[in-house]
Design brief:
2 copies of one chain form a homodimer. Chain A has 532 residues and is of the alpha/beta class. Chain A contains 17 helices and 23 strands. A 5-stranded parallel beta sheet of chain A has the order 13-2-1-17-23, with helices on one face. Chain A has a 4-stranded mixed beta sheet with strand order 9-8-19-20. In chain A, helix 2 runs parallel beside helix 17 and helix 4 runs antiparallel to helix 5. The first copy, chain A, starts with 10 loop residues before the first helix and ends with a helix.
């Protein structure tokens, strides 16, 4: 950490010492502070070396976990077969487009009537840059990516209880909140409040940094000034020719920001999972599932609903209904089984696994989530409000409005993510509604932020994940206690069965978790097969 | 600003009162705080109403200012003609691609040998979302835009004098700096240092906000914890299956961050000009100039070097050399002249304008800038370092390394902006070098951040703007004093001549300034013509 020209130890030697004396965690932490990259759990395409001797694997579920397992086991020489409930691959990796139909639990069928090229991603919709496994499969399978805009400074933070219900630009709340913090800390520092914590030399740099970083004026005040305008923007933007001087705007006071609680929205732009550069596939997240499926011609049996899983010392037998043939029951037999069914489904099936794994399967509830896609005849958010991509956050039940990260500035129609509700009473409330009621409520909420909703709306569709027949929920929801008691039991190879999916990872609800879980599961399975 | 359900005045009435009693600036500020959008100097396509009665306009320079003037005056019924020094349109709006050649002042010619689809934007390279005029012309002329990534949390901040010269991830410096600020202010607040500035109720919310926003643990400390890891990332990322628990990283101490001065780099991500969502045209910034030129078939005379501008009461006569015909001198005569030549050029020409305008023309120096495009045989920044778009900042002379905001995750070759030097001694030092020396130095500097430079470099090109024959500098550089003494004189209609360009705006060095300046100039010119 010093500027020393010749440290007495090389960095790698030092790490070896730390690893030997203080163990893994200390070594990881030392790696970071010595300037090595963070360790990723993904280190490039998996190499399954050794002969599987003709072993067969039945894989349950053609989501990303199941298809990752099938693809890699197939490459390694296994005979693989996937049973999939839906008539498409991808699972929660899914884009709804014009012409699609979707029937939810309870029987309501929605027909998607979006225009060509427009879509809703009911499930995953953004990819962090550090989801290396997913990115690597996108590269290998030719899935073209484009940036997903998480933070758009010109989108809104909205509270129905503050600022008279008027949405505020993220840019202003962010700059004014951070400016006020800088002003308060500069003041406290200059008054000696940090004298016992920070050296005088460092205080001098700190004050300089706060002024630069916070947009403070020469007297360390965060007020209407050229300095604050540089961050928060202007009341009147600079222009060209005569009369073109800018006018600085008046910051929103700290009291108003604090009591509005709009600062809570800012966290969504700070977290590792949402940092730039995020991605989405061109044309919808479903392009990834489609690309995986293209790698598995003839391996996926669609419309196959698993009804039971038995195992013995020599293999696994999976019973399933052929949904296209009036529920005829068939059986699939293989040496091994990678089960990538959601735990919501699996916990309701007869499954022959050990008591600890069964307890784990039953221990994890699934989060509740509802998403809405709303098509408008005009991209008013761009044309009227200059919002290009990004997300507005609100305290209304819809929580999010996300603007498309594609087709910018081109006019024409667009589909907004008109709401994304994650857990809490509103998620259950909306799940209980009919699809038409959901859309009506999404329009009511959204019109409080964008009045143009009323005149520009054309068509909408919603997915309430607890009503999705193939998952019965959105994603596995672990607590510290369930992790401690059940996670390792869930992930063990149990006889001839191993589980995979986002629920069997430390990155629940993310596609990366599904893929990494599958890679870990098959690596262990393969080791056992080769050793046998 | 209150939650009051029925304010006594409507917002518009209130604004009228404020405008009447306190004047324009107060009204603009009130507009912002009342929730109206900031006032943009651009309000949609210009309407030049009234008959120009066959008036003719000669326009000097086919940059964005000149072409905006020509396009809009042409639409309004003027006879327009542009004289352009280069054999292409666009001026500083320019992309260098494989097959292009560029000869700088001094005679050195560089041949660009980039692969197909790769380019360097020697001039403007990014478009803020609030440059509404430019975006509107892009929309009208069918220029497709894609996001330009300014802030990539995984790119680097680098000081040759700190951290042993090892580049630091922006993510960690940003999270750790902001976390330390939050910790210090939470501490000062809890010790009563803000008691005279912030109410007790607000202090309670402030402390809660600092904990959430800064990643502090339950004891308000910024240390290795789940909370800080959520922002700064992990020493070991979470994974899937067994042994997949994440390991939190140790934050960099505030002392190290302060003394490294890497916090200075963070400002580049806060400012209004660089906030999300920024754009670039697909295929290079030059696509905009090309699109403008397509709107002006036959109106542009290329290879025409202006040598003098005379005017009388009835019109303007511009002398120019036809560079293709051994410098033959010709004259162009028109009723009016919109002169969009850079002041560096104009100040060296005989020009018949008033003394105040001449003084203004001579008063504005031009900033110095050098840019490098470096082609590498492999996108190692993505493949090895997971940097997708964005900019690394360094204290080395090259200052910036910018990673392409296109073609992500697709493998193959790529062109980095291998340096962007803006003013200061290094800009002059690099301008004085031969093109080959510049590239060699850019590689030396860059290799300190990316050692792969050495093995992966293929070909490079540089533009030092003070050696660009058509501008002799990068952009007009105003001070508070020159603005006060000269700006309005520069922008007046002087007899039959009016100037336009980024130099005649409050947004110097940006394309938006050029366009807004042209629109303002021709609006005033047209008013005069119609009134005559």
């Amino acid at each position: 950490m010093s500027d020393a020209a010749s440290p007495p130890l090389t960095r790698r030697n030092l790490l070896t010492l730390i690893g030997a004396s203080a163990g893994g965690t200390a070594m990881y932490q030392a790696m970071t502070s010595l300037g090595f990259a963070a360790e990723s759990p993904y280190r490039g395409p998996i190499k399954l070396e050794g002969d599987p001797k003709g072993a067969s694997v039945v894989i349950l579920g053609a989501g990303l976990a199941g298809m990752t397992a099938a693809f890699e086991l197939g490459r390694a020489g296994y005979k693989v077969r996937i049973l999939e409930y839906n008539n498409r691959a991808g699972g929660r990796n899914w884009s709804l487009r014009g012409g699609d139909a979707y029937t939810e639990l309870g029987g309501a069928t929605q027909h998607c009537t979006f225009d060509d090229g427009l879509y809703l991603n009911p499930g995953p919709w953004r990819i962090p840059y550090h989801h290396y496994a997913l990115l690597d499969y996108c590269r290998r399978f030719g899935v073209t990516l484009e940036p997903f805009i998480q933070l758009n400074h010109n989108a809104f933070l909205h509270s129905s209880k503050a600022f008279g219900g008027r949405p505020q630009r993220i840019r202003e709340i962010k700059a004014d909140f951070e400016g006020a913090i800088a002003e308060l800390l500069a003041k406290a520092t200059r008054q000696g409040a940090l004298d016992d914590a920070v050296s005088k030399d460092d205080q001098a740099i700190l004050i300089e940094a706060l002024r630069a970083h916070g947009g403070l004026d020469k007297d360390f005040r965060y007020v209407a000034s050229d300095e604050s305008a540089e961050f928060r923007g202007y009341a009147k933007d600079p222009g060209g020719g005569l009369g073109a001087a800018p006018v600085n705007g008046e910051p929103i006071g700290m009291h108003d920001i604090l009591t509005s609680r709009l600062w809570q929205g800012l966290q969504n732009f700070l977290s590792y999972d949402f940092q730039t550069t995020m991605f989405q596939p061109v044309g919808g997240m479903g392009r990834i599932g489609e690309a995986f499926a293209r790698q598995l011609p003839n391996a996926i049996r669609y419309g196959a609903k698993v009804t039971g899983i038995r195992q013995d010392e020599r293999g696994v037998t999976v019973a399933f209904e052929d949904l296209a043939r009036d529920g005829t029951i068939e059986e699939a037999r293989a040496d091994w089984c990678v089960c990538a069914l959601p735990l919501t489904i699996l916990s309701q099936l007869p499954v022959e696994v050990s008591a600890p794994m069964k307890a784990a399967i039953d221990a994890v509830p699934y989060s509740s989530s509802v998403k809405f896609g709303l098509q408008f005849r005009r991209r008013f958010w761009e044309e009227d409000e200059h919002i290009f991509g990004g997300i507005s956050y609100t305290d209304l039940p819809i929580r999010h409005i996300s603007y498309p990260s594609a087709g910018y500035n081109s006019g024409g129609k667009g589909v907004l993510l008109g709401g994304y509700i994650w857990n809490g009473p509103n998620a259950y409330e909306f799940t209980a509604m009919s699809p038409a009621e959901r859309i009506a409520r999404a329009l009511d909420d959204g019109a409080q932020i964008h009045p143009q909703y009323r005149s520009e709306f054309e068509t909408g569709i919603s997915v309430a994940w607890h009503r999705a027949p193939f998952t019965l929920g959105c994603a596995g929801e672990w607590t510290e206690e369930t992790r401690r008691d059940h996670y390792d039991n869930l992930c063990q190879i149990d006889g001839r069965i191993v589980l995979a999916g986002e629920h069997a990872s430390y990155i629940p609800a993310w596609q990366e978790g599904a893929i990494l879980s599958a890679l870990d599961a098959i690596a262990r399975l393969h080791k056992r097969v080769v050793a046998a």
